[in-house]
Amino acid sequence: MMKEKTYEKENAFLSPYAKKSSETAGRARAEEPCSMRTDFQRDRDRIVYSKAFLRLKNKTQVFFAPDGDHYITRLTHTLDVSQIARSIARCLSLNEDLAEAIALGHDLGHTPFGHVGERVLAKLSPNGFRHSEQSLRVVDVLEKDGKGLNLTYEVRDGIVNHTKSGKPSTLEGAAVSLADRIAYINHDIEDAIRAGFLRADELPPSAVRVFGKDTSERINTAILDVVRESEGQAFVRMSEEKQAALDDLRSFMFERVYEHANKLIQESAERMLCELYTYFTAHPDELPAVYHGVWEREGASRAVCDYLSSMTDKYAISVFKRLFVPREGGV
Fold first, then answer.
1. What is the pTM of this model?
2. Theoretical Cys-Cys bridge with 64: which of 141, 189, 265, 293, CB 3.0 to 4.6 Å?
3. C-alpha span between 162 and 262 (Å, rounded)
4. For the segment 195-230, what is each residue's pLDDT rounded down to a tens digit?
């Protein structure tokens, strides 16, 4: 079997701390194995061909409907995270396929309008809302018309634990969690400068000294630091110096960019999502058919949150207009 060659290579070359494909804890539902691909490779392919992954291209990262073609979207952010995670995994002799699958799936449950949408749904839903948990719900419950993707335990664990507070069970998951922070802080700086929210010379001097002046240098410095700190160890982390500098950059971005950028869309996004939540909670029978099973099993609020979080920015706006904006001639 072609897959056996991959197993042999992993056993020969991967770190003893890597999660080898042959050692997966498996899937919730047993399946006929693929002769060519490992389970982690199959998971990666399932995510890439999922509907939720395709929708990421039209979901806000930070700047909503920017005037330009080169701003980061949720999809390009995901690809950035995948690239950084694979680089870390490769240098540490970890399982690149597992890291890539986790990275590609980590934001599948993100809302329209970025973190503004996440905060709105967290307030509206009786059960709260966290995009990491919703990403797991997407792959477990919502994809493939309610059948889910039936991913491996390790990929699912990495997806739900990718946030800073998460505790992934594999080093590959830890690599993705770090890659996520490295990616969004750095490309959000670039977008903020492009949008006029920030000048490069306004970045904290201490962080510039540690990481460098431009995006490429900062990312390269961060990856090299993770590799030097973690090589041959049973953990993946940054050095204390680099982690402190990254935390400073993150705090700076929240103070100078995220809160201000979010204000531009917060009022409109909050109004739209609140109105849509109220409407569909009162009329769950008007939800798309795929959410009817969720409504019957878990209630209208859960089904509505699933539907709203799946929306792209443009689709949320179009549904809002259809329901609440009078059309010409009253038709």
1. 0.94
2. 265
3. 23
4. 788 898 999 999 999 999 889 999 999 999 999 999
Q: Is residue 297 part of a domain?
A: no
pLDDT exceeds cutoff 60 at 69: no
Number of compact structural domains in the chain: 1
What's the domain range around 128?
Answer: 39-265
Residue 319 belongs to a domain: no
What gap in Å lies between CA 89 and CA 186, rounded to an integer?
Answer: 20
Give the tens place of pLDDT for each residue, 8-32: 999 999 999 999 999 999 999 999 9
Say which residue the tokens 């804890």 belong to.
25
One-letter amino acid of 278: T
Per-residue tokens: 253:
């971005």
Predicted confidence (pLDDT) at residue 329 exceeds the cutoff of 70 = no
Residue 242 falls inside a structural domain: yes
